[in-house]
């Protein structure tokens, strides 16, 4: 029996423009990450939250499998898609601890609610 091969993701980094200090290291492709858009928004990068445990991943995969089986998909296609989802979700992002959060958070009112932002220096 052949052992499953683990795919290693390339690490992408983001550095300070002025001092070249390392700020962010991630296995996600930085240019393809979604950004905030719309009026009054700062066009910041949106990093998806990492899963904290394996049960969240299993629940999501079961929901996907049920939705694909309900649409009369072939069971082998569902298994291949499940494996692909499991493999692509092993991303890691590190925001380096050398940044110091501001003491006071900034509250921003929007038409859809309130947003709390903390400036990292």
Automatic annotation (TrEMBL):
<dbReference type="InterPro" id="IPR057965">
    <property type="entry name" value="STEEP1_dom"/>
</dbReference>
<dbReference type="Pfam" id="PF25809">
    <property type="entry name" value="STEEP1"/>
</dbReference>
<feature type="domain" description="STEEP1">
    <location>
        <begin position="7"/>
        <end position="119"/>
    </location>
</feature>
<feature type="region of interest" description="Disordered">
    <location>
        <begin position="28"/>
        <end position="98"/>
    </location>
</feature>
<feature type="compositionally biased region" description="Low complexity">
    <location>
        <begin position="64"/>
        <end position="82"/>
    </location>
</feature>
<feature type="compositionally biased region" description="Polar residues">
    <location>
        <begin position="83"/>
        <end position="96"/>
    </location>
</feature>
<protein>
    <recommendedName>
        <fullName>STEEP1 domain-containing protein</fullName>
    </recommendedName>
</protein>
């Amino acid at each position: 029996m052949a052992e499953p091969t683990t795919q290693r993701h390339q690490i992408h980094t983001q550095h300070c423009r002025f001092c070249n200090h390392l700020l962010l290291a991630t296995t996600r492709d930085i240019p393809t990450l979604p950004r905030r858009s719309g009026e009054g928004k700062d066009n910041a990068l949106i990093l998806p939250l990492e899963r904290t445990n394996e049960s969240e991943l299993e629940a999501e995969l079961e929901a996907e499998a049920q939705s694909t089986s309900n649409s009369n998909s072939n069971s082998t296609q569902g298994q291949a898609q499940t494996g692909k989802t499991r493999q692509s979700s092993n991303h890691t992002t590190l925001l380096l601890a050398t940044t110091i959060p501001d003491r006071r958070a900034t509250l921003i009112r929007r038409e859809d609610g309130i947003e709390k932002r903390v400036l990292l220096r």
